[in-house]
Amino acid sequence: MLTWLIFTPTIGAAVVAALPRARAAAARWVGWLASLAALVLAVRLVAPFTPGSGEMQFVVRRPWVPLLGIEYALGVDGISLLLVMLTAVIFPIALLSSWGAITEKVREFTVAMLLLETAVLGTFLSLDLVLFYVFWEAVLVPMYFLIGIWGGPQRTYAANKFILYTMAASVLMLVAIIALYLAAAPAGARTFDLLRLQEAALPAGLGPWLFAAFTLAFAVKVPLWPLHTWLPDAHVEAPTAGSVILAALLLKMGTYGFLRFSLGLFPEVAASAAPLLLTLAVVGVIYGGISTWPSPPRSGGAP
Asked: Which residues lie across from 76 on neighbouring strands?
């Protein structure tokens, strides 16, 4: 069921891409119905889901690159279920809101939105670190084009800033994933499985560095002050649907990463780093409030 949930929007994107460009109305309807189908599949997870369980549910495991211990592994718990439901609800609304706003390259816009939905769902459902990273990075591509093609006057600048910030931080996370994979190998077979890596014993002194690399990638996505400067440009220049996805989902991916990976893999380091992260969060709140404070009127000017 989880695989169908993730890739139903991709199937819809393939159908939309096969339509003639002139059939904008058909592209809108097919895209919207594909997002509704994903919503139906997400709702179907709720009834059989067992609340209060600390275990992953509806787990899917398939060999992907067995030689390296990479799996196609998916699962749901209480945290990811809420975010999956949020994703499945937001995308039909965002697509519907774009019907009157997007009048050029409608087919391409719909394809980008559906591929973005697949990437976001895959991010929230992945249990293998390589699979997670693939979906995490896949989010950047359609979002880049949504901002860069259908955005405002400064869309090129905003799109480039968005992808440079997030991709640069993600490279550090990739290095940390590889280092974690190699460091955990002596304790057992090499694996990228999140649940097994949570139980692995790491060499002394390595945990803080890996925690820092993961957390930096997630801090940019949140974004945590002072790594936030890409967000105002992206929000302002993105089309309405893209701005909704940014606020409702992409920023949540950073918080999800904190909870699932930084805290899940390195709980002791996370506890030690909590005062620093809390300080940065408070500074961000205060800084945001000050930056939006209206400036006093100039002397002799209009009130």
From this structure: 57
